[in-house]
Amino acid sequence: MQIFKNSKFFFGTLKAHTLPTLKYGYGDLEPVLSATLLEFHHSKHHQAYINNLNAAQEQLEDALAKNDVQKISSLQGTIKFNLGGHLNHSLFWENLTPIKNGGGQLPDANSALVQEINKNWGSVDNFKTFFNTRTAAIQGSGWGFLGVDQQSKKLRYLELPNQEIPQNYGLTPILTIDVWEHAYWWDYKNVRPNFLANVWKIVNWKDVETRYNQAQK
What we know:
The chain has a single domain (29-217), classed as minor pseudopilin epsh fold (3-Layer(bab) Sandwich). The chain contains eight helices and three strands. The protein has helices at residues 2-6, 35-66, 69-94, 112-121, 124-136, 185-188, 192-199, 205-215; strands at residues 142-149, 155-161, 171-178. A hairpin with a 5-residue loop joins strand 1 (142-149) and strand 2 (155-161). Helix 2 (35-66) packs antiparallel against helix 3, helix 4 crosses helix 5 and helix 5 packs antiparallel against helix 7. The longest helix is centred in the first third of the chain and has 32 residues, at 35-66. The chain is globular.
């Protein structure tokens, strides 16, 4: 039961999880993401992770009460996968905002975040190119992350498969892009690079900057 003993994300109070309410309407991210795609992604895919997570947690509570070691062990993978899906998607929604509300607008050039990006990649444009190139090359399903290293407090890029979470790799995520096919197929078919090129137009840099500043404390 290594997961449950060592990770605060996978053990503790087994509260029921709920689908987060978006801060924008399903049609507000157009033309980058269509209302149809966003509604399906949020209300169907994300909700499915939550439903599966809650069901597995109920089974885990029962198994813990009965000290059913075999059942507890068998639930680890299900809980890890679906909780990861819930956490990653929750961050993804917060990282997006409509163009009319400032989507794509960078923080001030003198901000600590922009200066750190420039220090690591030369410019924000260079960072976007780097991020897109690496994330587009993920085989199968996964996520690209920009985060703050929990020890050095420096920015670090990380790509992870499926629903792995960066917290388990010493990284506090401040920005993520979902490159599972369901995140873009409806609008971009199998051309992942086109999705990645356009999604920066709706990135909520204010949210990213806030998360960066919080992670420095």
